[in-house]
Amino acid sequence: MRFLSRSGKHDPFEMVNIKQVVEDSLVYFKGKFERNGIKLLIDFEKEDLLIQCKAVQISQIIINLLNNCHDFISHISEKWVKVALFEYQDDWIIISITDSGKGIPKDIAQMMFKPFYSTKKDHSGLGVGLSTSKFIAHEHGGEIWLDESSENTKIVIKLPKLQKRSNLEATDS
């Protein structure tokens, strides 16, 4: 957890096995999900998918998303979260996190990645998790979005396997 509690902003981009990054992010949630009756489903296409990234920041995205899944499905009867990881068009990887929720209304979907927007009624959310996740994905030359075609709530993260020179130079400065 100490590894994940730092920002990673000044870390260099490094070649890492993204499967390991995702698995490391899941460690905390396996027990938390189990205690709350949430089934964790994992679908990894390959054992070795190397990408150039800041591993701490990619973990932060995954943790933000898993936290949201936990908060929003903990009160419904059917509770599951599926984490999928696969290669896309040779140059990209996709991480998708789907939960048993039945989607997000359009008005919320339009706002959910904006800073300080939160739907948590108990005011436990600051509204920065998804906007931070979007910022990190963009800093990595990638994207994050709500898959509105899914019958369940599904967030997709698309990241390049290799960073463009401009991203690497921005890290050096």
Properties at a glance:
single chain; 5-stranded mixed beta sheet; 173 residues; 6 helices; alpha+beta; Heat Shock Protein 90; 7 strands; two-stranded antiparallel sheet
Write the layout of secondary structure elements.
Layout: H1 2-5, E1 14-17, H2 18-35, E2 39-44, E3 50-53, H3 55-73, E4 80-88, E5 92-99, H4 106-109, H5 129-139, E6 143-146, E7 153-160, H6 165-172
Parallel strand pairs: 2-4
Antiparallel strand pairs: 1-3, 4-5, 5-7, 6-7
Helix pairs in contact: 2-3, 3-5
Q: Can you offer a commentary on this structure?
A:
By secondary structure, the protein is α+β, with helices and mostly antiparallel strands. The protein has a single domain, classed as Heat Shock Protein 90 (2-Layer Sandwich), CATH 3.30.565.10. 37% of the residues lie in helices and 25% in strands. It contains 6 helices and 7 strands. It has helices at 2-5, 18-35, 55-73, 106-109, 129-139, 165-172, and strands at 14-17, 39-44, 50-53, 80-88, 92-99, 143-146, 153-160. The chain has a 5-stranded mixed beta sheet, covered by helices on one side. A hairpin with a 3-residue loop joins strand 4 (80-88) and strand 5 (92-99).
Task: Give a brief rundown of this model.
The chain has 173 residues and is α+β, with helices and mostly antiparallel strands. 37% of the residues lie in helices and 25% in strands. The chain has a single domain (2-172), classed as Histidine kinase-like ATPase, C-terminal domain (Heat Shock Protein 90).
